[in-house]
Design goal:
about 240 residues; alpha+beta; six-stranded mixed sheet; 1 helix; 10 strands; elongated
Length: about 240
């Protein structure tokens, strides 16, 4: 039985600039889950793109053809493949402050195309929006020809310049308090210290009692000595008088 063919969902957003080419681009994501890189064919041209990808697990072939509203700079565009989708940053060829009014050349609405609200900012608010360094972690388009499994795609890092470490800067979390347990890895030492403190407390109270007892005993002894000395002193005085 042949695989069924379907049009994948596409989401998009954009940025614009009349002076900085790196801030003048289209975010484009093609949802194609469980499609391995070697099963993808992606042909990107200045005026549009053609995508095909086959998922053996889903028994589905995804196919898509887009004609852009305006031209893009293919050589300076980037792409990134994941197990869920294909993500692209397509640099607009013409530097302009104004946004494209739409992604596609034709103004008709298509069911598979949606706005990527996670990345979208309004045209007059983009200067205040955080800058996503998506270009830094993506492979180039150079030499792509008719597919993704070609030069420029190997060794790609993660999105947003994250590299292969997921954006955590190479931190070894196994050294931060016992791995997956998080800070809970500190619990044993802390508990031991608490137990030691608890064990020491009764001893301190006992020492205070003994010290108090010794003090009381000494006081009583001194009082007894003074009392025992009093009759002798009185007798001595009586004898002197006699």
């Amino acid at each position: 039985m042949s695989d069924k063919q379907t049009t994948p969902e596409v989401t998009w957003a954009q940025r614009s600039s009349s002076s900085d080419p790196e801030k003048n681009f289209i975010y484009l994501t093609i949802a194609a889950p469980d499609v391995p890189k070697e099963k993808i064919q992606l042909d990107i041209k200045p005026t549009g793109l053609t995508f095909s990808g086959t998922s053996e697990t889903k028994k589905t072939t995804y196919h898509l053809e887009l004609e852009f509203y305006a031209e893009i700079d293919v050589e300076n565009s980037k792409t990134h493949h994941t197990s869920r989708d294909v993500e692209l940053v397509l640099r607009k060829k013409e530097l302009k402050d104004e946004y494209w009014p739409r992604l596609l050349k034709e103004s008709k609405k298509v069911h598979f195309l949606k706005t990527d609200f996670d990345k979208w900012v309004d045209e007059d608010e983009q200067e205040d929006a955080p800058v996503d360094d998506m270009m830094g972690g993506m492979g180039g388009m150079g030499g792509m020809g008719g597919g993704m499994g070609m030069p420029g795609m190997e060794g790609m890092g993660g999105m947003g310049g994250m590299g292969g470490d997921g954006g955590f800067g190479g931190i070894d979390f196994s050294k931060l308090g016992g791995g997956a347990g998080g800070m809970g890895g500190m619990g044993d030492d802390a508990a031991d210290e608490d137990e030691d403190d608890d064990d020491e407390m009764p001893a301190l109270e006992g020492d205070d009692d003994e010290a108090a007892a010794d003090t009381t005993g000494d006081s009583k002894g001194k009082s007894t000595e003074k009392l025992s000395d009093t009759p002798a002193a009185a007798d001595s005085k009586i004898q002197e008088v006699s």
